[in-house]
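Quick one: examine this chain and its backbone structure tokens and tell me how the chain folds. Here goes:
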Amino acid sequence: MKDRIRQIMEDQHLTQQSFAQMTQISTPTLSNILTGKSRATLNTVELIKRKFPLISLDWLLYGVGPMYIHDGAAPTPSDATSGSGSAARHEPTDMALDFSDDDPAEVSSSPQSASAASLSAHSSSQPSSAYPSGSLFDQPVSHSVNPTRKNIAQTEVKYIDKPQRKITEIRIFYDDQTWETFVPKK
């Protein structure tokens, strides 16, 4: 799997650090995966799939099939909005490099960049029909039970004035195994 993650990074022209930031995988975790010290976890795969929805999970997990989901394998959001039967393949680099939150109509007048912006806007709002979004370990939040407030005990801090300390004896040790003792006058 580490070779396939490295291939995604090369295909998207990303460094290890920029890939880690983009996918929200910690940099040390990604480094350990790429060096072979540890294996990718389910969380890592989910973060990659969430950021790159056109990557085939079969390819990412097992190395089987094409790297990207083909047009016939899963309907793209642009197919549903255009209503046409002919599907235009979107380059994954267009979607990966589209970081804007702007309205797709305001971004550019070119059809290719507008369709890429439309794809990124729709992919974040609609889960893929082939693979549901979210973690397998997500649990629904129950709003019917109110959390119990913990009673925090207030402790009063008392400062006790101690009497001033006085020197009672000073000893000086020498390297020839002798010492002197000094006692202050009373």
Summary: The domain at 1-74+113-130 is CATH 1.10.260 (434 Repressor (Amino-terminal Domain)). Residues 72-95, 104-129 have pLDDT under 50 and may be disordered.
